Amino acid sequence: MERGKMAEAESLETAAEHERILREIESTDTACIGPTLRSVYDGEEHGRFMEKLETRIRNHDREIEKMCNFHYQGFVDSITELLKVRGEAQKLKNQVTDTNRKLQHEGKELVIAMEELKQCRLQQRNISATVDKLMLCLPVLEMYSKLRDQMKTKRHYPALKTLEHLEHTYLPQVSHYRFCKVMVDNIPKLREEIKDVSMSDLKDFLESIRKHSDKIGETAMKQAQQQRNLDNIVLQQPRIGSKRKSKKDAYTIFDTEIESTSPKSEQDSGILDVEDEEDDEEVPGAQDLVDFSPVYRCLHIYSVLGARETFENYYRKQRRKQARLVLQPPSNMHETLDGYRKYFNQIVGFFVVEDHILHTTQGLVNRAYIDELWEMALSKTIAALRTHSSYCSDPNLVLDLKNLIVLFADTLQVYGFPVNQLFDMLLEIRDQYSETLLKKWAGIFRNILDSDNYSPIPVTSEEMYKKVVGQFPFQDTELEKQPFPKKFPFSEFVPKVYNQIKEFIYACLKFSEDLHLSSTEVDDMIRKSTNLLLTRTLSNSLQNVIKRKNIGLTELVQIIINTTHLEKSCKYLEEFITNITNVLPETVHTTKLYGTTTFKDARHAAEEEIYTNLNQKIDQFLQLADYDWMTGDLGNKASDYLVDLIAFLRSTFAVFTHLPGKVAQTACMSACKHLATSLMQLLLEAEVRQLTLGALQQFNLDVRECEQFARSGPVPGFQEDTLQLAFIDLRQLLDLFIQWDWSTYLADYGQPSCKYLRVNPVTALTLLEKMKDTSRKNNMFAQFRKNERDKQKLIDTVAKQLRGLISSHHS
């Protein structure tokens, strides 16, 4: 029973579900019934649903049929009435057609007239509209015509303004016309044409400026030179009615003619002709000489076109390229000053133009850009100057170059460019200048020393005397009292060298001008350079003269006298430098002149050369010695060669009267010592294997001649027998052998009071051996065999004792 209830409940539920689905199908759009039908197919009561659906379809068909049957009679009645109306309508149509035909016939003329009126009214309206449109178009056409005229006359900036008005004011009012479209399409082309033309003018301007930079710089540097000269005059004279130039006047730097080739170049190149101005007339400024309008026009045009940055970049890039070209020096720049001048003119001209652009435009160039260019220019310029100035060997060219660099720096300093590095570089060039001066003065000193006669300067009148004293600071009351003719103690090279040293100091001073150095720095520079001149250049020149092979004793003596006077003049050179620099020598860190040392060294070298020369002369005379060491004859006079030697020495030392006393004494003592040493070597030389007592007697006569020369006092200043001491070794040796005083020698040997203190046992043994050999071979004593044997024994005994002394001395 329960199962039957459950089946009945399920059947009711299924029927309700099918009813719901049918209602949903009836109320839902056909495109959306897919899910609904799917739920039917998913269920298990598909057949029952189809039955239910068929039943519902039949119910709807019966309802439709009932409705059609209900309205059919009304439809029939309507068709009947419509057939009646069709006949009446046909009649009305005929009447209307007839009436229309009559009306058309009657109104044909009126229609023609109305048509004519219509055409007239249409034409009138068209004319009026045309006039109105033409009134709108005429200003556009006029502006376009004006634009073309401006383009034709190269008034590009006004043309650009006209183009702006045309585009934004006039063309929008008539934009629907085809000719306006053509204009609108042409506007970008016109803008590009204006840009191209203005850029072409700018390129012409830049090219012309590059070509004429040296002219611009030349006039700028000339004006700077004039201003500096004027400032110097103002400093030297009372400043009456003088006017200082303002910063604005810094641009008025040009005062000479810059040529142009044609009227077109005057208009377009940027360079204007200016006639030469009188010195008292106002000098034209940069804006007067250079037509900057192409730059300004192009800048305005690009600014209006919104391409200012493009223009700025292009301008700066081109100017940088030009700067690199300007800063590239010609390879032969160092050969002439004009090469340097042209190089500087181009650099100055470049930066004068840039400075003017900086101050007359807003942002085309800025200070950072200028500073960057200047830093590049400064480094390249300094490098070029270092390289090319190093090739210069002419001090005058170096000095002119220095003046040109100073003018170059002063000119650019007027425009606010820092130039300290240029002045620092000038200090480097100063050292090179000093070197070139030293080379030049080396030649001058060489010529002076080579052309000098090394004789005291003779003067025959007061005028000649004053002339020499005016050239060289010399004071000698004794010489002043002497009557004319008289002689100065020094030769001509003394005043010449002294004056050339002063000229060198003047040359050093010239370089220090306008370098903005303090007096102390100038003084220090001059003193250091002068010291180099004295200690290196002049010293080398003097040494070369002293060391010449053909130099004579007279010349050497005169050199000593000359250097003595030059040494005394050093204090006057100190005073000379002090006077021109106004720096007292007592100032702290003041460099002292080393002239005294230089002349002392030269004098000492000359003295040594005198000593060497004398010794060489003595050696030459000694080479003439021709002793017969085996002679048995006793001579009675000195050898001829020695007599000539003594005569030479007497005449030589007579020339030494003007030398300082110690120099003459040292030369005399040196000559005597060398003579004594040479004679000793001559006596003891290995080639003389044997000698006789007679030869020793002749040698003794020669030594006595030397001693007589020493006693005669060839040079004053020696005390008693000081000069004779040079021959004391020879004298004691000869006395020992001639007197045969061996007992005294051997007994007193080694005692301070020994008579033969200067005789060396080795020397005595050497000479004794030579006499021993002679005694053995001498047949003159053959008849006195016993005496000969006794003497030989004595010689052997003495020789043995001498050997004992020598061995004991060594031990």
Please, could you describe this protein's structure?
With 811 residues, the chain is mainly alpha-helical. Among the domains are: 218-228 and 287-417; 741-810. The protein is built from 28 helices and two strands. A two-stranded antiparallel sheet has the order 1-2. Helix 23 (661-684) packs antiparallel against helix 24 (693-711). The N and C termini lie far apart (169 Å). Residues 82-109 form a coiled coil. Residues 421-770 form the Exocyst complex subunit EXOC6/Sec15 C-terminal domain. Residues 52-221 form the Exocyst complex component EXOC6/Sec15 N-terminal domain. This is Exocyst complex component.
- Report strand %: under 5%
Percentage of helical residues?
A: over 70%
Distance between the termini: 169 Å
Gross morphology is elongated
Element pattern in H and E: HHHHHHHHHHHHHHEHHEHHHHHHHHHHHH
Query: Main β-sheet, in a few words?
Result: 2 strands, antiparallel
- Over the alpha carbons, how many angstroms does the gyration radius reach? 65 Å
Low-confidence stretches: 238-282, 779-784
Helical element count? 28
Strand order of the largest sheet: 1-2
The SS-based structural class is: mainly alpha
Report mean pLDDT, rounded to a whole number: 79
Coiled coil: 82-109
GO biological process, one term: intracellular protein transport
Domain Exocyst complex subunit EXOC6/Sec15 C-terminal: 421-770
Region (Disordered): 257-280
